[in-house]
Write a structure and sequence with these properties.
single chain, mainly alpha, 3 helices, elongated
């Protein structure tokens, strides 16, 4: 039985290879567009919880939780 060992690339080499791959696959214009796409930040836990609370109907929620 043989075990293969994976060696991770240094970050700068990984970035270089990824950009080269994007350029080859998409071309310079589309690769640039891809790299410039805005990144949405996920809601933090408090915002997510408040949004969930805002969507609740209090009577229905209490009925489901307490069952009376």
């Amino acid at each position: 039985m043989t075990v293969e060992q994976h060696i991770y690339l240094q970050e700068d080499e990984m970035i270089h290879r990824a950009v080269e791959t994007l350029l080859r696959a998409l071309g310079p214009v589309e690769a640039t567009r891809f790299l410039a796409l805005p990144r949405e930040r996920p809601l933090d836990a408090v915002q997510r919880h408040r949004a969930w609370q805002d969507s609740l109907d209090q009577e229905t929620f209490f009925q489901e939780v307490f069952g009376h």
